[in-house]
Amino acid sequence: MRSLLETAEAVEARLEAAVGPLSLAKLGVLRPLVEAKQPLPLSELAEREHCVRSNITQLVDRLEKEGLVRRRADPSDRRGVLAALTPAGERAYARAMRALAEEQRAIVHSLSAGDAAHLKGVLELLAD
Question: Can you tell me whether residue 86 is helix, strand or coil?
Fold first, then answer.
């Protein structure tokens, strides 16, 4: 088990490094905004990311400071806040996703076809 966890950490570190100034957590907030093509409530972002709203608030704070999102008042709820993607956020997301896909391909291509198939089978067994 320790080896599996250490390997997962190493792979995650490679993916984190690939996305550069963003992080996987920030990408997790940007993704639904890109997909929705409209501002979303922070509560919905928290729900989609399966985390507490305070975590989303902190991530949105950082993204806002970086100019990648901006907050808007929710017109349908005076107490609500929406996160809106900025053009800089769209560009940063696209760059990071290309880098992430490239690194994922590099990881997969470091395995032979047989090793990749074997690993997939073993991981599926562990997931069950």
Answer: coil
pLDDT bucket at 1, cuts 50 / 70 / 90: confident
The pLDDT, as a whole number, for residue 128 is 87
Which tokens belong to 38?
């409209």
24, 28, 31, 37 alpha-carbon torsion, rounded to 10°: -140
**Geometric angle at alpha carbon 96, from 45 and 119, rounded to 5°:** 90
CB-based contacts of 40: which residues, under 8 Å, 6+ apart?
Answer: 32, 33, 82, 83
- Domains of the chain, by residue range, sit at 2-127
What CATH number does the domain located at 2-127 have? 1.10.10.10
Amino acid at 11: V
